[in-house]
Design goal:
Elements: H1 7-10, H2 15-23, E1 43-47, H3 67-71, H4 74-77, H5 84-99, H6 101-122, E2 125-129, H7 139-144, E3 148-154, H8 157-164, E4 172-177, H9 184-192, E5 197-202, E6 205-206, E7 211-212, E8 218-222, E9 228-235, H10 244-247, E10 252-256, H11 262-270, E11 275-276, E12 286-287, E13 295-299
Parallel strand pairs: 1-2, 2-3, 3-4, 4-5, 5-10, 5-11, 8-13, 9-10
Antiparallel strand pairs: 6-7, 7-12, 8-9
Length: 322
């Protein structure tokens, strides 16, 4: 049960904000993947799970999401999040953030402070993922909690550059998400500066039986006109925490394609969101073991001139028609 709003918080209250505040039991939560910790290391990890993109029907919390990313989001179509009750929880948290941000951040702050106390008492580290299914700026919370290590994925190139140039709080780490529309030049720039990029790989995955497809050990990013570079691949499904301490730098984080329906999986493949891997079939999968081998080749589009200054973050060209 959340603490009652303070007088200062009530000064900014709205009727809708108060309605959704009553519906949100907790801002912080976890999921199956977030409970996977590196090398058996004990930490306390939590995250804020909103309704991705426009799924709340109130606001878009994924500014840089592509069409395929929205249509096949793993945080909406896989695991516990596919259940109606879990989706409603995510919508309520999104609505609270939108209609009463002061209350949202006050509750976030208090819950994270309690987590830090539990971590200190247990002698372990505190971790938090502010954007489990969103891509928002929560820097006010990050800066206020130096005892917690924060991490996120972002599809915003300029946001990623802020991180690589040291403009974000030092306890906050970002991984750049690659979509079907992400230009080759953006990926090359991130890798060249020691950042990591995340790619959804079309390799077998079936959680209920713990059967995992082969993850490539290396990746070649290329353009249709022949420019290319090679990086090593980290299996991003082994654990959730994305920091240089565990992942290093200048690498690709491979994430297996996950969804509870073949329709969603096929959509991710056909639109190029999930990258084809020649050894990703079920015949290469194993139970209770995540293996790596082989090389994936990923062809990316060239930079759209409108993306140079961030005018067209998605690369769809829609802003050229505005």
């Amino acid at each position: 049960m959340a603490a009652k709003p303070t007088p200062a918080e009530l000064e900014t209250a709205t009727p809708r904000g108060m309605k959704y505040d009553a519906r949100v039991g907790s801002i912080l939560g976890t999921n199956t993947k977030m409970e996977k910790l590196p090398n058996g290391r004990e930490v306390i990890n939590s995250g804020v799970t909103m309704a991705p993109s426009k799924r709340s029907k109130i606001v878009n919390v994924c500014e840089w999401a592509s069409a395929a990313c929205i249509a096949t989001c793993v945080l909406w179509f896989a695991g516990r999040r596919a259940a109606a009750k879990m989706r409603e929880c995510a919508r309520n948290i999104t609505a609270l953030w939108f209609y009463w941000p002061e209350r949202f951040y006050a509750r976030y702050d208090r819950e994270l402070t309690n987590q830090e106390r539990r971590a200190a008492a247990a002698g372990v580290e505190s971790y938090n993922r502010p954007n489990v299914a969103s891509d928002l700026n929560h820097d006010r919370i990050v800066a206020k909690h130096p005892r917690t290590t924060f991490y996120d994925y972002t599809a915003g190139f300029l946001r990623m550059m802020d991180y690589l140039l040291g403009r974000l709080p030092p306890n906050y780490h970002l991984t750049f998400s690659v979509k079907e529309s992400t230009p080759f030049e953006h990926v090359l720039e991130v890798i060249s500066r020691g950042g990591n990029v995340a790619v959804v790989v079309d390799t077998y995955y079936w959680g209920p039986t713990h059967r995992y497809g082969l993850m490539p050990a290396a990746a070649v990013f290329q353009t249709e006109d022949g420019e290319s570079f090679r990086v090593s691949v980290i299996d991003g499904d082994r654990h959730d925490i994305r920091t240089p301490e565990f992942d290093g730098g200048g690498k690709m984080i491979g994430l297996r394609l996950k969804a509870q329906s073949n329709r969603v999986k096929e959509l991710a493949r056909s639109r190029g969101f999930a990258k084809y891997f020649s050894r990703g079939g079920k015949e290469f999968s194993t139970r209770f073991e995540m293996r790596q081998g082989g090389t994936i080749v990923i062809t990316l589009p060239r930079l759209n001139p409108l993306q140079v200054l961030g005018a067209c973050p998605s690369g769809c060209g829609g802003c050229a028609k505005a």
